[in-house]
Amino acid sequence: MRRIVHEVGPRVPVADVTTQSRQIDETIVQERTFADLCTCFGVLALVMACVGLYATMAYAVTRRTNEIGIRMALGAAQRRIVWMVLREVLLLGGVGLVVGLTATWETTAFLKSFLFGLKPDDPLTLGAAAAILIAAAMLAGFVPAWRAARIDPMAALRHE
Asked: Alpha-carbon distance 24 to 52, whole Å?
């Protein structure tokens, strides 16, 4: 670039030559940092929600050990016990999803200023977010459900 400019006009000074994409990157560095922070906080919130839901379901399974033992002693299949616990997880996740989507819908005017090239009420984005949340809830609830299905009925009936 410097050589071409020097051939056209040898007295024209050439300094601080950068590409347009680099100039754009330097201009929006603050916005990208904010977007990266929002992504990190979103992932952190998802992890915290998973840990909280896991703890809640593990506690619920522990509290219901006698009930689960009776169900298994009466012939309940392990898959039915797993489904019983996962239904609760889905119920909790569904309630959280309804509350979150309602809050999102009510704050769309505020959210528009933070989104570039995306509408706050975009059905594909909201559907993807809902699918991620339900998948995270199922993942968080699967371990307590699996443990509940492995309870020994005799040990559970002796448990207080």
From this structure: 41
Through-space distance between the first and last CA atoms of the chain, rounded to whole angstroms: 81
State pLDDT tens for residues 44-71: 999 999 999 999 999 999 898 888 988 8
Q: Within 10 A of 42 (CB to CB), how many other CB atoms are there?
A: 12
The 8-class DSSP code of residue 122 comes to -
Burial profile 6-35: b = 16 or more Cβ within 10 angstroms, e = fewer: eeeeeeeeeeeeeeeeeeeeeeeeeeeeee
pTM here is 0.72
Asked whether 135 and 48 are in contact (CB, 8 A), the reply is no
Q: b/e for 95-110, b at 16 or more Cβ within 10 A?
A: eebeeeeeeeeeeeee
Q: What angle do CA 93, 98, 103 make, to 5 degrees?
A: 125
Query: pLDDT for 91-148, tens place per residue?
Result: 999 999 999 889 888 887 777 777 767 777 778 888 998 999 999 999 999 999 999 9
Buried b / exposed e along 53-79 (16+ C-beta atoms within 10 A): bbebbbebbeebbeebbebbeeebeee
